[in-house]
Amino acid sequence: MINQVMFLYHDHHTTTHRGSNKTSHKLINKYYWPNMHVAINEYIKACEKCTRYNYIRTKRLGKMNIIPTPNKVMNLLAVKINSAQEAADFFLDVCYHCGAPSKLITDQGSHFVAELTRAIIESCNTTHILATPHHPTSNAQTERFNTTFAPALSKLTSDQTLDWDEFLQHVIYAYNTSKHTTTSLTPIQIMFTRENQLIMDPKKMKISLMKPNEYYEKAKQSRVLFFNHVKLNIKHLHQLVKTRHDKNRPDPKYVKGDLVLVRVIIRTSKFQEKFEGPYRITNQIGSATFIVKIENLDNDENTNYTKQVTTADMKHIFSFEVV
C-alpha cells in the first residue's frame, strides 16, 4: 500500500518527482503510517530517476585533503608539439639538473602515457602517477600554479598571443622572486636560503666574500630556520582553510563492491541525465580515488569497461524497502 501511495505522489507524471518536503506536504493531511517522514525520505533517496537527473545543491562532496604547498622554484619549458620525445627529453633534463624524482604526477595525455615516456620514467625508478580525468585537484599543485602563471603571461603577450614563449622565463623569474602568501618567503629564499638580487635593484657598492667553510655552516643554519618557519606557516594556514572548507560539507564513504552512479562530465542536452551507471567499485587507489567497472545487466557490450573517478563525482545507489 505504501509503495502504491508513494508512486502516485512522487513518480506519477502529474507529480514529476518532487523533493521530500513537497511530497510530504501533499501526503501529510491525507495518509498516515508509522515513521512516515523517514519512509518518504528513504523512498525519494532510492528513486533512480531523481538520483540520475537531479542537480546536487549541497557543497561539493568530500572533505579537504591537504596537499603540499607549491614552495619550490618553478621551471617551465615551451615546446612546439606535445610529443613523447619532448616529454621524455624534459624529464631527463630535470633528472640531469636535480636528480631523478621519486614520483611524477601528470595528466593522462598521450605524450605522458606513450611507451617511450613510460620507459624513460621507469628506467629512472620513478613512480608515475596519472591524475584522474576532469579532476584537477588530483594534480592540485600544478593547477594552482597555472592560475597564477596563465594570467601573468597573458598580460605580457600581444593580441595574437603567438609570442607567449618569449615571455615564459620572465614570468617564471617574477614568480620565483615573489613572496608566497602561505610560506611568507620567496621560492628562491627557500631553495637557496638567501635573498635574490633583482635585475632592477641598484648595484651594491660594497660586497663581502665568505670563506667556503663559513658559508656552508651559515647555509645549514639558515636552511633549518627557513624550513621551520615555512612549516609553521603552512600548517597554520592549512588548518584554517580545511576548517572553512569542511564545515557543513557532506563526506560519503565508499568501499570496494559498492554500487554507484558516476557524474556525466560532458552532456549534450540539458535533459540528459547528470549521473550514469550503475558502476561497481573494484579498487581504491587513493583516499578519494576509485576504479569502477560498468555494471550493465541489460547489455552485454562493454562489460569490461572501467574508469577512474573520485568521490566528488559519485553517488550511492540506495534501495527502498517497506518495513
UniProtKB/TrEMBL annotation:
GO BP terms: DNA integration
Pfam families on file: Integrase_H2C2
Gene3D superfamilies for this protein: 1.10.340.70, Ribonuclease H-like superfamily/Ribonuclease H (3.30.420.10)
Gene Ontology MF, one: nucleic acid binding
InterPro entries documented for this protein: Integrase_cat-core (IPR001584), Integrase_H2C2 (IPR041588), Retrovirus_Pol_polyprotein (IPR050951), RNaseH-like_sf (IPR012337), RNaseH_sf (IPR036397)
Chain coiled-coil ranges: none
UniProt domain Integrase catalytic: residue ranges: 96-195
PANTHER family per the UniProt record, alphabetical: PROTEIN CBG26694, PROTEIN NYNRIN-LIKE
Protein name from the UniProt record: Integrase catalytic domain-containing protein
